[in-house]
């Protein structure tokens, strides 16, 4: 035992260098990879996202179907814009946090149309943001068009 | 860290120690101390590399910095260790 203790005392700096090196490489290499090199798409949405109806009135709920596929379990933020086709401008903005889980599934979501919405052709577009190893990843999506009549 | 994880860690450590003793006492009893040193050095190095590679492939997998440090210190210890003659 004393032989081991003497060895540790004599080679303390070398052992410490290996310890620190292992921590730096073990922690740093995956972070470096996921920050700069990882191009994997962990969360996919099949585009376009289909809106259930073609005709809506202001104040109606737009129901749409999202077919999604995920390689990870995570929390995701959906940022969705209601866009007027005529001049491609955002009319309303929606923000929602959801849980995503590994596998494929289809979900039906709904968004309320503003009650003062002008008639016209609209569509939804947005981006889903989620984290992988602490780094942000995004997945865009857009919907089919629908008409709003008064 | 909960009680179950602590118990699993203690049990794993005890089983590993018993396995190592059994290996050295009955299967590798004629192995030279220096060869045993190199054997442990290689095994721990491979396991550490495997944990880093797994973390690169699977983003859900995470090795604690404490475990990295422990494996590095074991490698450092056996890298410089000279068995008694």
Could you give a short description of this structure?
The complex is a heterodimer of chains A (150) and B (85). Chain A is α+β, with helices and mostly antiparallel strands and 150 residues long.
Total helices of chain B: the number is: 3
Beta content of chain A comes to: over 45%
How much helix, percentage-wise, in residues of chain A? 10-25%
Beta strand count of chain B: 0
Q: Describe the global form of chain A.
A: rod-shaped
The counted number of beta strands of chain A is 10
From the alpha-carbon coordinates, what is the Rg of chain B to the nearest angstrom? 15 Å
Ends distance of chain A? 88 Å
Q: Level of helix content of chain B?
A: over 70%
Structural class of chain B: mainly alpha
Shape of chain B: globular
Reported for the largest beta sheet of chain B, the result is: none
Q: State mean pLDDT of chain A (0 to 100 scale).
A: 92
**Largest beta sheet of chain A, briefly?**
6 strands, mixed
| H-E order of chain A | HHEEEEEEEEEE
Alpha plus pi helix count of chain A: 2
Low-confidence stretches of chain A: none
Structural commentary:
Chain A is α+β, with helices and mostly antiparallel strands. In chain A, 23% of the residues lie in helices and 49% in strands. Chain A contains two helices and ten strands; from the N terminus they run ααββββββββββ. Chain A has helices at 2-10, 12-37; strands at residues 43-45, 50-51, 55-56, 61-70, 74-84, 89-100, 103-112, 120-132, 135-142, 146-148. In chain A, strands 3, 5, 6, 8, 9 and 10 form a six-stranded mixed β-sheet that branches. The longest helix of chain A has 26 residues, at 12-37. In chain A, 19% of the residues are buried. Chain B is mainly α. Chain B is built from three helices and no strands. Chain B has helices at residues 3-27, 33-57, 65-80. The longest helix of chain B has 25 residues, at 3-27. The radius of gyration of chain B is 15 Å and the shape is globular. The model of chain B has no long low-confidence stretch (mean pLDDT 86). At the A-B interface, helix 1 and helix 2 of A face helix 2 and helix 3 of B.
